[in-house]
Amino acid sequence: MGLPLSLLGSVAAVVLASCAQAGTPGEVIDVFPDSGVTVADWSGSTLRFTEPPKRVVSLVPAVTSMLVSLGAGNDLAGRTDFDTISAVLALPSVGDGLRPSLEHLLILEPDLVIRYEGPQDPSTGPALDARDIPHMGVRTDRIEDVAAILVQLGRIMGREAQAGELVERFEVELEEVRQRVAKRPAVRAAYLLPGDPPWVVGSDTYLGEILEIAGAENVFGDLGRPYAPVSIEGILMRAPDAFVVAEGTAVDERFRAHAPVYQVSRGIETPGLTLGTSARELARALHPGALP
Amino acid sequence: MSPAGGRQWTAVLLLGVAVVASVLTAVRFGSVPLSSAQVLGALSGTGDPIHREIVVQLRLPRALLAVVVGGGLALAGATLQALLRNPLAEPYILGISGGAAAAAVLTLGLGLVAAGSWVLPAAAFVGALVAIALVFGVATAVDHSLDVRVLLLAGVVVGTFFTGVIALVLALSDAPAVRGAMLWMMGSLGGAQWRTVLVGATYTLPAGLVLIALARSLDLMAIGEETASFLGTDVERVKRTALGVASLVTAAGVGMAGVIGFVGLIVPHAVRLSVGSAHRKLLPLSFLAGAVFLVLADLIARVALAPTEIPIGVVTAFVGVPLFLLLLRRSHQ
Q1: Is the peptide bond before B307 cis (omega within 30 degrees of 0)?
Q2: With an 8 Å Cβ cutoff, are B307 and A227 in contact?
Q3: Domain definitions of chain A by residue range
Q4: What is the distance of C-alpha A83 from the center of its chain?
Q5: Nearest residue on chain B to A140, judged by CA atoms?
Q6: Smallest Cα distance from A129 to chain B, Å
Q7: Is B258 helix (H, G, I), strand (E, B) or coil?
Q8: Does the distance separating the beta carbons of A96 and B309 come in below 8 Å?
């Protein structure tokens, strides 16, 4: 069953063109440059916006932060329980970002829902499709995804200039960290995630990229998978010079006996505009004195 | 009508009313506060379109799916407890949940869910059927007479095998797939649509009638297969029919709502403590009690910490255990 007529009216500005045309995830496709903007989301579906949405619900905290940074906080109609930034805490919550309450989503009458794309949430997209609510799936696997989402949001929300500034600042921040540690020998490091055996960060991940920007060589960069559980002996065999974990992660004592364990703020595991700060924090830990 | 027969019909009537009352309560209350007038307006088709969508497309099919799944699990549990003569028997004892979960996890791990919302439930249902076929195949290969002890062992072995498959797939999957698999394995009625209610009812209601028709044979089987055979029961036919039907009902439930524990184990015991072991009473009353229990458990899961939804297995355990202990204590007094 489709969405009620009153709600259809409010979302008339957004035309979901999924299936009709597939796009490259993160791409901005200006098919009709004079009458709006067309983007491809991370599922490959395309959405055309004839005017900026006014009632956005983002189920992805990093995207919510980006919208606030763009100055589009007033266009947010709701938030999730995952959100921690004070600017959105007064908004009504739709619950868990991966299993949002459909009742709460409907009552907010969103004209755009931004959701996690991937197997962690297989049901929200089809449920929104069934009600003709426009939705955009995003993934933040790589640093380039963060920048691409920001560019798309800038176009969609009619805030291209702000998005351009933020992307530039974000990239300059990361480049500055990279330059500061460029002449120092790379520290062979392993990024550990919770688990028994621990999970490690492998290739093609934003965490692996942050390690490299901060002057580390990811000892699992050749893993061939983004993340994987690896035995303790498998980790120790790689003989890293440092272990990196987010605050609050339990670390096996055998790792501490082998190499120093550096803790960084938990924000590093929320890919968004704060990655520059995370890279700086990590570089300071791995290369004392390299950054002010 | 005998006094016992009268009491049975009274109990069926009371629980039938309870099913209707629980469904109406589940439609009246939800994570979004709506007034009685708004809910009535939505049901009569005159209210706000968004309220209609919430009440008619979200709450009502969800409550009815809880009736079908809860009733089906309790019915399957009561049947398996009789056939296997094991008070710990529950709908998943024959490895069905393992097969369904392995298929669901594999689907998530391979990224096949993108093909459509029907893929995950369909995969879980097929996985459950594969598990049933394996268990029956193993048991029949060992003993053509389908010895229930062999069947139980086959269930444990097949279940353990699928647990290994799940662990392997999870170890080789990316973090998002692992997260999705964990959420699926907790069970939820959140995917309820009118289509799923129809599919569930198509499986469960005729299956329920078949099992209730076998009530007298199940009474005899609960005493022992030899006694049942001596008294004229075609033991093999009853075993195969009842096990097959109970397994199919469970498979349909798992496909639509994931693995929801506790209902199929505790509800039949609670009903048995109240009305005795005669399957003529036990089976229909277990269906109705299972339906009421799951509808109310799902309601609590939706509203307790709204808008966040608690996994339904948490509610079935937290509400079911004290309720069962209370019944146990009263029956001993």
Answers
A1: yes
A2: no
A3: 5-158, 183-286
A4: 13
A5: B176
A6: 10
A7: coil
A8: yes
SS3 content of chain A, % helix, strand, coil (to 5): 35, 20, 45
Cis geometry, peptide bond prior to residue A197 (ω within 30 degrees of 0): yes
Tell me the backbone φ, ψ of residue A251, rounded to 5 degrees: -120, 130
Exposure of A279 in the CB half-sphere (CA atoms within 13 A) = 29
Q: B191 is written with which tokens?
A: 């995917």
Instruction: Kindly give the confidence (pLDDT) of every residue in chain A, 292 residues in length, as a single tens digit, with 9 standing for 90 and above.
Output: 344 444 444 444 554 444 445 567 767 766 555 668 889 999 888 898 989 999 999 999 999 999 999 999 999 999 999 898 999 999 999 998 988 999 999 999 999 999 999 888 888 998 999 899 999 999 988 999 999 999 999 999 999 999 999 999 999 999 999 999 999 999 999 999 888 788 899 988 999 999 999 999 999 999 888 888 888 888 999 999 999 999 888 888 889 889 999 999 988 888 888 899 999 999 999 999 888 7
Cα separation, A245 vs A265, in Å, equals 9
Q: Which of A97, A86, A206 is nearest to A147 (CA)?
A: A206
Smallest CA-to-CA distance from A89 within A68, A120, A72, A112 is with A68
C-alpha triplet B271, B275, B277: angle, nearest 5° = 80
What CA–CA distance (Å, rounded) separates A199 from A184?
28
CATH at residue B204: 1.10.3470.10
CATH 3.40.190.170 fits A183-286, yes or no: no
The SS3 assignment for A226 reads: coil
Q: Which two tokens stand for residue B242?
A: 């009842």
ipTM score above 0.90: no
B114, two tokens: 């993108």
Could you identify the residue written with the tokens 């019944």? B327
* Class for the domain spanning A5-158: alpha beta
Residue of B nearest to A194 (CA): B175
